[in-house]
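Note to self: keep these together.
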Amino acid sequence: MKEGQPMPNDREQGKGAPQGSERQTSRRDTPIEVRRRLRHESRTSQTYATFIKHLCERGGMSPAVAEKAAVSVLCALEQRILSEEASDLEDQLPRKLTLLLHRCEKHEEELPPKFHREHLLRRVGEDLSLHPDAVEPVVRAVMDAVRHQITEGESEDVMGQLPQDIRDLWTRTV
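Structure:
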């Protein structure tokens, strides 16, 4: 560009981000309900993705395995605690994750037994087709990821409803 010539205006050339009223006009074109739904879906995906990422890091597993592990462990956990406590726990979990907390299809028709550590580990191992030695670290990783999503008070409430041998899995870090 030669000295003394005016700088071209990006807006005049059709470049740059929409300014002021242009931005507001395009925003008004999208109904508020649609904008809210899109924001909600984005937040839901982000919090769920954060949970899965944390679980992958703690448990050294792929996202697909992490999701299956979460379903198995949360299904068992939901059956082991009182329904009121399960509801309180759900309130603090990411929206997509609460779907995992409900009793999975595999155990939907069963009456929840008052099981202990060995039953929990065997059940998760069968669900995930894992060698018995590999199950406990996976269960701990899921429980750790859940604890990182909830308040300390809620964690203590859940822990208070677990038998001592499962409580050990809930409280110990990976």
